[in-house]
Write a structure and sequence with these properties.
alpha/beta, 7 helices, 10 strands, 4-stranded mixed beta sheet
Length: about 200
């Protein structure tokens, strides 16, 4: 059984993280607000939990999910040889930015692209960072919709099918009607220049 540090738990009490951590640890999936749109999440290192998200979303298994990590140090545990330019970018970029990294490591096959890549974001949202830091592992962050249906701009737009398919709906920001957009997605090209894909 995973042990959560008292410091991490104290840091996150305002968001009722204590009730979220056991769900993740037991292989459950959650509906939660990310730094962009509402997402379906789980422990990204748990292949069975990731499979449950694929099933709920009815998503093609060849399209792995975006993952969230708490900081650059956690990111390095799941990516080989991160380019220094990306480290600098992550420290100073102000908008939500998902980067596709080559040569993922320490992740199950269903979180990794056929070319060995993985899409990861360090969220700007305090709740997300503190939840992930308290849990100690990356989380899946897939938009809270069935594949090919519109993504929800706020919680009120999440379908009943998605809500009934998760093990827990996080309370934080449930009544916030501010509309959100997905993050920018980028990767380094062959010349080590940043290429924006979305």
């Amino acid at each position: 059984m995973m042990t959560f540090t008292n410091a991490a738990i104290r840091m996150t009490q305002d968001y009722d993280v204590l009730s979220i951590l056991p769900i993740l640890e037991s292989g459950g999936i959650i509906l939660y607000p990310t730094d962009t749109i509402w997402g379906i999440g789980c422990d990204a290192t748990d292949a069975e939990a990731v499979d449950r998200v694929f099933e709920l979303k009815q998503r093609d298994r060849s399209k792995p999910f975006v993952l969230l990590v708490s900081d650059v140090e956690m990111l390095k545990e799941y990516v080989e040889n991160m380019h220094p330019r990306l480290q600098t970018l992550l420290r100073f970029h102000k908008r939500p930015l998902t980067i596709i990294y080559e040569n993922a490591k320490n992740l199950p096959a269903n979180c990794i692209g056929a070319d060995g890549s993985v899409a990861i974001r360090i969220p700007h949202d305090k709740f997300c960072r503190e939840l992930i830091a308290a849990y100690g592992k990356p989380l899946v962050a897939s938009s809270a919709n069935i594949s090919d249906e519109p993504f929800p701009a706020y919680f009120g737009e999440v379908s009943s099918e998605v809500i009934s398919g998760v093990d827990m709906v996080v309370n934080y920001r449930r009544f916030d009607k501010s509309k959100s957009e997905p993050s920018v997605i980028a990767r380094l090209d062959d010349r080590d220049e940043l290429e924006f894909l979305r």
